[in-house]
Amino acid sequence: MTAISAARPTGAHRGRRAANRRSGPPEDAPRWERPALAAVLAVATVLYSWGMGNAALHPFYGAAIRSMTGGWRAFFFGGLDTSGSISIDKLPGAFWPDAASVWLFGPHTWAAALPQVVEGVLTVWLLHRIVRAWAGPFAALIAALTLTLTPVVVVLNRATIPDTALTLLLVAAAGALQKAVRTERLLPLITCGIWIGLAFQAKMLQAWLVLPVFAAVYQIAAPGTPLKRALRFLLGGAVALAVSCFWVLIAWATPAADRPYLDGTSDNNPFALVFGYNGLSRFSSDSTAFGAVAGTANSRTTGNTGWNMLINDTVGPQVSWFLPLAVLAAVLGVVWRTGQPRTDMQRAGFLLWGGWLAVHALVFSASNGNHAYYMAVIAPALAALTGGGLTLFRSEYESAYKPEAEPEHEPEAEPEYKPEHEPAPWSPYMSAHEAEPWSAQVSTRESKDGSKEGAKDRSGGRRHMALPAAIVLTVVWALVLDWPTRFVSWLLPIAVMLALCGVVGLWSRGPRTSPRKVQGALAAGIAATLVVPAGWAVSSLDPVYAGASTAPIAGPVGNAYYAGVRAHHPPRRIGLDRPSARDIALLDYLTTHRHGEKYLLATQTAYGAEPLLRAKSEPILVMGGFTGNTPFPTARQLGSLVTTHQVRYALLTTQRPATSTTTWVKSHCTRIPPTAYGSRTGGSFTLYDCNRS
C-alpha cells in the first residue's frame, strides 16, 4: 500500500502538474516552427526599419522627444521645451523610450524611431506566443504573419506615434489574462493589470477599452466559484487603476510651480488632461468638457466614424483585409464550442479576441472622428482570429476526411484524478499525453447505434466547407477593398489564381489524395489571402504612399497623398537636428542677441516652436500650447517675464488665431524685419523684440 501510494501522485500534485502543463507551450514543436517564426520576425524587422533615418517623425512629438532629453523635469512630465514650461497634450509614457534612445544615441531621426521598430517586432513575437498557447503553432504563425503584413501596422511602426506602445502593452495584457484563465493563478491577473496601467501611460483611456472584455472572459472561463472569480478580477482591476493613475496623481500632487503647465487644460489639472481633453471632448458636442480647452482643426480630426468606419475607402485598406474572416471565426468559434465545459479555452480565446475587435469598433464608430492609424490597435485581434479561425476550420476539414478506424479494446484503467475546477484542454497541438487536437476531438463522435458516423456528420454537418469558403470570402473581400483605387491591380490575378488552386485542391480531395497535395492547396489558399494586403504594406516604404508624419497611412489614400499628387512631390519628411536655412538664420540671430534671458524666444502655439526645438535644445516659451487655446501664459504673466528679462523675443504667426498674449505682443513689442536675420520674407511668421531697455 505504501509503495502504491508513493508511486501515485496525490490529487494536489496532479492538479499542480496539470496546471503546469496548461501554462506552457506544447512540448512537441514541429520542425518548421522556429525557422518560420524567424523568417516572419526578419520580414517584420525589415519592413519596420527600412529607411529609418527618414522615418515619419511627428513634428510636435519629435520636438518634445528631443526636449525631454534636457533634464528630469522635462523627461518625466513630458515638457515641450527643455525648461518644461508647458507639457505636451498627452501623457508622456509612450515617449519615454524615444527620449531615452535620443539621449543615448544622439539627436538623430533614426534614434527617435528605433523604439517604435522594437515595439512593433516585439508585438509580432508576443502575439505568436499568445496565439500558440491558445490554438497551436499553425495558428500562431498565421497570426504573426497577418499582423506583420497589415498595412497600417507597417506604416505606424515607421513613425513616432504612441499607438505602437499602446498595442504592444495591450497584447501583453491579453497574454497575461489568457494565462490567468488557464492556470487559476493570481499573479498573471496582477500582471495583466500592470500591463493595462502601463498602456494607460501610452494613450490614456483607450487602454481601458479592453477591461469589459477581459472581465467577461475571466468570469465566463476562469476556474473557481463566481465570487472568487469576481474578487480576483476586482483585485486585478485595482492594480490596473493604480498603475494607470500613478503619473496623474504625481502631477496632481506636485505644486504647479515645480512642473510644466499641462497643455490642453483650462485649469492646469491632470485629470482634465486625461478625462476632458483626451476623453469626453472626443465624444461630446462640448469641446471644453471636464476642463478641456477647445480643440481646433489641427488638434481634432473628423471623419472615419460611424457604422461603416472600418470599411471605408481610407480605413478599409489599412486594416480590414481579414475582417470578414475574423468575424466568421469569432462567431463559429463560439457557436461550435457550445456544449463544452465553461472553462473551455478554445471558446474563451474566440471570446477574448472577438470582444476586443467588437468593443474597439463600437467606440471608434461613436467618436467625433478618428485618424486611420488609430485602427492599428485592432490589428492583433484580427490577426489572432485569422490564425485561430483557420486552425479551427482546418481541424473540421481534416476530421471530415479522416479514415475510419476500428476502436482498440484495451483493459480499463483506473480513472485519473482531476481537480474540481480544472479547465478543459487548451491547445489543439499538445503532445499526445496532454490532449487531443481539435480534429481528433470532433472525429470520434459516434452515432446512437454505436457505429461511426459519415464524414459530413462527424464534422458537424458541412463544417468542413468552412475552410475553402473562408479563403474565397477573404480573397473576394480583398478585391472589394482594392477596387476603388486599383492600387495593386497587378496582384489581383495572382491572388485569384492562388485562391483557385487552393480551393479546387481542397474541394476535390479524395480518399487517395496525398497529404502533401492537401498541404500545398492550403498553402496556396493562405498565400492568396495575404498577397494583396502585402502589396499595400510594402508600398509604404515609398514616402509617396506613407501618408503624412502627423497621420501615417499606406497607399494612395488620404489628404497627404492627394496633396503630394497636386504638388508633384511626396510629403516633406522632417527630422531631428535638420534645421532649414530659415531656421538656421533665425537661431543664429536669436543666439547672437541673447543676453542672459531664460527663454530663447516665445512663440504663438507650438507651430512656430517645433522646428527650432527639433534643431536645438533650448528653452522656448510656447504660448497657448499645441492648439493655441491653452491659457498659458496669460498676458500678465508674459509681461512679467519680459519685465524680469526672462524673455525678449516673440514669434507670431498668421496660421493661428489671435489671443490675449499675441495682442499684448503686438502692442508692446517692436516688429523686426525679416532681412535682419537673413531672410527675404518672414512668410507667415513675424518676429518681435520686446526689449524695453
3D structure, described in words:
It is globular, with a radius of gyration of 29 Å. The relative contact order is 0.11. The protein starts with a helix and ends with a strand. Helix 26 links the parallel strand 1 (602-604) and strand 2 (621-623). It is an all-alpha fold and 693 residues long. Residues 1-27 and 413-459 have low confidence and may be disordered. The longest helix is centred in the middle third of the chain and has 28 residues, at 226-253. The chain has helices spanning 2-7, 11-23, 33-49, 59-67, 72-77, 96-105, 109-135, 137-148, 151-156, 163-183, 187-203, 211-221, 226-253, 270-277, 316-319, 323-335, 345-366, 379-400, 438-443, 455-458, 466-482, 492-507, 515-539, 559-567, 581-592, 605-615, 635-643, 660-668; strands at 602-604, 621-623, 649-653, 670-672, 685-689. The protein contains 28 helices and five strands. Strands 2-1-3-5-4 form a five-stranded mixed beta sheet.
